[in-house]
Amino acid sequence: MKRRRNQRRRRKPRSVWVRKWLSERRRQQYGHFTTLLKELKTEDDKAFYNYTRLPRGLYDEGSPNTISLIVQEVCDAIKDEFATEVIQCPTETEEWASIADLFEKRWQFPHCCGALDGKHVAITCPWNTGSEYRNYKGFFSVVLMALVDADYKFLWIDVGSDGSSNDASIYNGSELKEGLESSNNVFNLPEEKQLPGDDVPVPYFIVGDNAFGINKRLMNPYSIRNMEYDERIFNYRLSRGRRVVENAFGILAHKFRILLGTLNQRPVTCRKIITTCVILHNLIRLRYPAVHSNVMDLEDQNKDLVPGAWRNDKVLMDVYHENARNSGTKEGRQIRRYLGHYFASKAGSVPWQDKMIL
Questions:
Q1: Which residue of 221, 240, 300, 350 has the lowest C-beta tally within 10 Å?
Q2: What is the pLDDT of residues 185-215, one digit of tens each?
Q3: Phi, psi of 148 (to 5 degrees)
C-alpha cells in the first residue's frame, strides 16, 4: 500500500492536457456536449434527466446570479452599437428645422423643437446613501428627464439624478439648457423666422410645464387663474404639443415593464438599464413605427382625445416641481404673449380650438 502511494507521487506529469488534433473548433463541432447531449435532450426526457440529474427546463435556464453578471455587459453592447444611431441631440440647423416642421404639421405648434419633462423610476435604496434617492412620494428613485420630438422619439435624455431632485434643478444643470441658451448658439438652432401668415420673426424653442422658467428658448403655460381668451388658447395649443412627451414615457413603460417595478440594482446599473430601454424604444420607432399605433393617444375626427392603451396601465410618476413663476425672462413672456395673440388670430387659429377651452 505504501509502495503504491509512493508510485503515484512519483508519476510523471502530463506533457500536454489536450492533444493538438482535438482543437477547440473540433470540440465545438464534434464534441459530446454539442452532438450527443443535444440529441438526448430533444429525444428522451427521462434519459436526459437520469444522465444530467436535471429536468430539461432547469438545465436550459440561466441562474439569477449568472444573469445579473451580464446585465451591464448587454446594456453596454446595445449602447455601443445603437446609441449614436438612434439617440443624438441635434446639432445642425436642418435637423432642428425638420423637427419643428413635424411639430407644426402634426400638432399645429410652429417653431417647437421638442417637449421636455421628467419621470421617476423606482429603485431599491442604495447602500449608505441615506435619503439622497428618496423622492417626495416616499420611495427611492432615479430621474429620467427627456426631450421628445413630434414622433415620440427621445432626442436627449438625462438619466440617474437622485429622486430628491426636481425638474428645474436637473434642467438648469444640464448641457441641454447650456446649449439652447448659449449666446453663440452652439446647438445651431434656426434663425428667427416669421410664423405662417404673419410678418414678425419668432425664435425656435422647446416647450415644458411650469417647473421650467420661461425664456426665449423655452415656453411654458400660463397660470390657470384668471386667464384671458388668448391665454386659454395658448395653453390648449401648448398642452396639445406637450402631449408627445407624456406619450413617449407611456409607450416606453408599456413596452419595457421593468421600468414600472423597482430596479434592484446599483444606481450605475439602473442608469444603464434605463438608457438601454430608451435606445431600444427609439430603434423600434425608427424601424417599426406602426408597432405602437394602439398604445399612443389619438384624436378623433372632432379632435377629441382618444386615450392610448398606456393610460390604462401603471405609469411613471412625475418629478416634483414648484411652479417657476418669477424665474422667467421678460423676453420669454413677450414671445409667449405674441404666440397667444397669433393662435387666437385668423392666421394662426385652428377650427376646433374654441370648443376645447370651454
A1: 300
A2: 999 999 999 999 999 999 999 999 999 999 9
A3: -120, 145
What are 325's three cell numbers? 413663476
Q: What is the largest CA-CA distance in the chain?
A: 109
pLDDT band at 128 (very low <50, low <70, confident <90, very high): confident
Count of CB atoms situated within 10 Å of the CB of 268: 10
Instruction: Tabulate helix, strand, coil % of the chain (nearest 5).
Output: 45, 15, 40
Is the Cβ–Cβ distance between 317 and 250 less than 8 Å? no
Least confident of 7-11, 55-59, 228-232, 249-253: 7-11
Spatial separation of the C-alpha atoms in residues 279 and 146, rounded to whole Å: 12
Question: Residue 229: in which H helix or E strand, if any?
Answer: helix 229-255
More confident: 342 or 290: 342
CA nearest 89: which of 149, 144, 142, 143?
149
User: In whole angstroms, how far apart are CA 231 and each of 109, 225, 355?
Assistant: 15, 10, 15
- Packed helices 330-344 and 229-255: angle between N→C axes, nearest 10 degrees: 100
3-state class (DSSP) for residue 332? helix
Confidence (pLDDT) at 31: 79
Task: Confirm if 254 and 309 have CB atoms less than 8 A apart.
Answer: yes
Strand segments, DSSP code E, in the chain are: 112-122, 141-148, 154-162, 193-194, 201-202, 205-207, 218-219, 298-299, 305-306, 317-318
Rounded to two decimals, the pTM is 0.81
Place of cell 428645474: 168
d(CA 299, CA 106): 11
Measured CA to CA, the distance from residue 310 to residue 318 in angstroms comes to 15
